Amino acid sequence: MSVYSASVTAPVNIATLKYWGKRDKELNLPTNSSISVTLSQKDLRTLTTASASSTFKQDELYLNGKLESLESARTQACLGDLRKLRSELESQDDKLEKLSQFKLRIVSENNFPTAAGLASSAAGFAALVYAIAKLYELPQDMSELSKIARKGSGSACRSLFGGFVAWEMGDLENGQDSKAVEVAPVEHWPTLKAAILVVSDDKKDTPSTSGMQATVKTSDLFQHRIKEVVPQRFDEMKQSILNKDFNKFGELTMRDSNSFHAVCLDSYPPIFYLNDTSKKIIKLIHKLNETEGEIIAAYTFDAGPNAVIYYDEANEAKVLGLIHTYFNQVDGWSKADTSKLSKLEIEGTDP
Ligand code: DP6
Predict the structure, then answer these.
(1) Which residues belong to any copy of the Mvd1 C-terminal domain (predicted)?
(2) pTM for this structure?
(3) Which residues in the chain land under pLDDT 50?
């Protein structure tokens, strides 16, 4: 009996305009549009192989060698959508093997620590959806597939593209217009770089899903963010990318990270993701930019204390040099810890 299989890799993406809040939990529809930069697969990626065979007894998922449950409603939503698309193809062409009726075996591996708070669910769901789509030979383009990955994890929809990516929130109730689109390919701004500062690799305090639900329910500031702040920032940030205007891009990125952590603090009870080291990094970057008289480095923090710093290659020595010096001075950090600073490339278009 044949086993059919396909392998893909999907990269991690880091939002510069944050997704935080769902207007529909089942379909994973966001309360605002977001923008991200996709990081290099050389550094952070998920490798997934999807196989189907009539001999498989049940759907199975192995994550980093461990058998994991496929029961979650999110995973089931992705598998259901993909099988439906495959069975539509099969009904149009009866020479096609009935893969939609076979059980699936999915083997997934991250080349970075899953618990390090480095957006592993985004790469994970993007790779899962893309691998099965490839196995099923689906004709849908990446934006179409992003609507399926979105149901796995919101931020995953953006990992189907390289370079600079927008997730348009859409306004339809069925979510058919809530999808990822390319803002610009990586070649557009090849000198933009990112560095990850791993402040802590502990598991998150409050998972993103429950954190954002609490914010939507309890924060007053949140309404201001989604209605007044983000819609304008979305257009401005896209423009700053198209213009390769680091000064503007950096300012908007830092402001949006701060706005996101402000609505977390305004949730009741408050949600804290930044720790003292994160705050010292924020101060350091502002001090550097002040000394330079322009923005040459920009920080952003997701649902955890680790920082991602964006900068232009031309300023690499200045930015990373300062961070290295500084890291060696922070309590609890020693020279050996500088390995926790990873310098990353931005990823190309084809995942
Ligand atoms: C702070 O995509 O992990 O990283 O849709 O519930 O799976 P779910 O949430 P998730 O949230 C990511 C939140 C963020 C911001 C972002 O990536 O845009």
Answers:
(1) 195-351
(2) 0.93
(3) 115, 331-340, 349-351
